[in-house]
Design brief:
The structure is a single chain. This protein has about 300 residues and is α+β, with helices and mostly antiparallel strands. The chain has helices at about 15-25, 35-40, 70-75, 95-100, 120-130, 165-175, 185-195, 240-255, 270-280, and strands at about 5, 50-55, 60-70, 75-85, 110-115, 135-145, 155-160, 205-210, 210-220, 225-230, 260-265, 280-295. The protein is globular. Helix 6 packs across helix 7 (about 185-195). The longest helix is centred in the C-terminal third of the chain and has 15 residues, at about 240-255. The chain has two domains: about 5-135 and about 290-295, Gcn5-related N-acetyltransferase (GNAT) (Aminopeptidase); about 145-280, Aminopeptidase, CATH 3.40.630. Strands 1-2-3-4-5-12-6-11-10-9-8-7 form a twelve-stranded mixed sheet, sandwiched between helices. Helix 4 (about 95-100) links the parallel strand 4 and strand 5 (about 110-115). The protein contains nine helices and twelve strands.
């Protein structure tokens, strides 16, 4: 039986359950629940599931691969993720990659394609054979030292649920406008963050007076506090506010009972890695390896 590419949007519930089981087995922290996987793969980042690809032989799933194309007109970058191809079936990779690259064909200008995959040797070999080169690692860091000091009185936090969502989106997008692998937030994603936070203080913006200067997105997972993202707008960087936002994020998570605090950061983001290390975080694991290739 010949193999067939099917977008996630076209899959039955039973097929989606198989996809989740495969993703969860490959990266349980990245894909913790079926609901979370369905929400992400079927969400706006992957065009409602149209750019999340699956490869099947009949009812047997051979692999998955998803591509984010919305950053191409903005930053000239596309991002490939959710790569699950077994070591026993390396031939599944190229059809999935070709399906993703076909979505970039309409764009006339060169595109930098970033491909993120689990740190497994066979995936590294497949990426390199396809013309990608290793660019950076996604690191998980854990707080092992004393908690950073909380922010000073000049900083004020406004939960997204109580603030202006457009202000939050503008601050978040400005903070990562020039960062590699920094995706812009859409209105739909901000709405999801606003409705999906388990507590109001886990998502919002930081202000000095009336001026928004930064933001954070936090999460709680079975007693573990996760700093998903913190960021400062460019004009506020280099003034020591990053340490204060880090302290505010940790204090917020501790206030919700977190006995462990972790975060993720790209290895190429040396200022952030240096900040986190200076304030008690240590490298715990490489959770993904990111490769890059210039298309056209």
């Amino acid at each position: 039986m010949s193999s067939a590419i099917r977008p996630y949007a076209a899959l039955s519930d039973d097929a989606r359950a198989i996809v989740f089981a495969t993703l969860h087995a490959a990266a349980p922290e990245r894909w913790p629940t079926a609901a979370a996987a369905a929400h992400e793969l079927g969400g706006p980042a992957f065009e409602g599931g149209e750019t999340a690809f699956t490869l099947w032989d009949g009812a047997r799933l051979r692999g998955t691969l998803a591509v984010v194309v919305r950053e191409v007109p903005v930053k000239g970058e596309a991002f490939i993720t959710a790569v699950t191809v077994s070591e026993a079936d390396p031939g599944a990779f190229r059809p999935l990659l070709d399906a993703a690259l076909a979505r970039l064909a309409p764009f006339p200008d060169p595109v930098v394609v970033a491909l993120g995959a689990s740190p497994r040797p066979h995936l590294a070999a497949l990426a390199e054979d396809a013309g990608f080169h290793l660019h950076e690692d996604a690191l998980r860091m854990a707080l092992r030292g004393p908690d950073p000091a909380p922010p000073g009185p000049e900083l004020r936090f406004t939960p997204l649920a109580a603030g202006d969502p457009e202000v939050f989106r503008a601050v978040a997008n400005a903070a990562f406008a020039t960062s590699p692998n920094g995706a812009t937030l859409t209105d739909a994603e901000v709405a999801d963050l606003r409705s999906g936070a388990s507590a109001p203080d886990l998502v919002g913006t930081w202000h000095i007076g009336a001026t928004p200067v930064g933001f954070h997105i936090l999460a709680l997972d079975d007693g573990e506090g996760v700093i998903d993202t913190i960021g400062l707008v460019p004009e506020q960087q280099g003034r020591g506010l990053g340490r204060q936002l880090l302290g505010g994020a940790v204090a917020t998570l501790r206030g919700h009972g977190a006995d462990r605090v972790t975060l993720s950061v790209m290895s190429s983001n040396t200022p952030a890695v240096r900040l986190y290390t200076r304030h008690g975080f240590v490298r715990e694991a490489v959770t993904a390896r990111w490769y890059r290739r210039l298309l056209r």
